[in-house]
Amino acid sequence: MDGGDMNRDRDRVRLLSNRIERSELKPGDHIYTWRIAYSYAHHGIYVGDNKVIHFTGGKVTKFLPSRFHPASAYCQACAEIKRQHESPANGGSAKEADIRDSSHGAGVCITCLDCFVHNWGHLYLYAYEVSTKFFLGKMHGTCTMARADPPEKVLHRAFYLLKHGYVKYDLFKHNCEDFSIYCKTELVIQSYIAGLSNQIQGKISHAMYMAADNSIMSHIMSEIDRYKSDIGVRKDATRVPVEKLLKAYEQKSACIVGCLGRAYVDH
């Protein structure tokens, strides 16, 4: 795949807005939608045919987060997704719709775009391999300097984690943005101290500096921390194949991750 395809996410966003129309979406896109007055965003991987694979906390079905439909009523589009994936022709079974143990990847689900957006408005495209200047000019949780893999690899990881599960949901270490970034890059953090999520890391860093001293220097230091925490420049980022990811997390050991992965040095 040539460089133009590899950089397509970066080339499709603007400095002032990452907003994207549904007609512009491509399979393998990392998309997000803002919630509650732009206070946070929900992220996922667009897999084509009006479907998104995403990660959320709590007990959910494989096909639909129960909190999106408290009455357990599927929308028409999600009901069709469920039917297709349960079809024996697709290697599925009715048991795949059962609610799984939330301690082991229960939060990975596939829904239609409408349920992903969930009445919160527009869709936005997460940008990869952006310049330092572009990165610092954007809100945290909207882009990264890391390089994205080709769409076919992104889709493989997303569907693999949908089938086999991901780790336990953790707002600070394993959230929806972390899940989507992993699908796009195959990267994990060796230390386990923090996740890949620039959205959470940026907000925490900013709040700490502002609480100490609401000055221009505090703003600058906050942005420096945000830059250093980005997965695209971190030296403790390691590539771990999706087939080995769960085993690595279950071991809860940075050395295991380091052995399974290959050092990510091609920034």
UniProtKB/TrEMBL annotation:
It comes from the Eukaryota. InterPro entries: LRAT_dom, Papain-like_cys_pep_sf. Residues 32-199 form the LRAT domain. It holds the Pfam family LRAT. This is LRAT domain-containing protein. It comes from Urochloa decumbens.
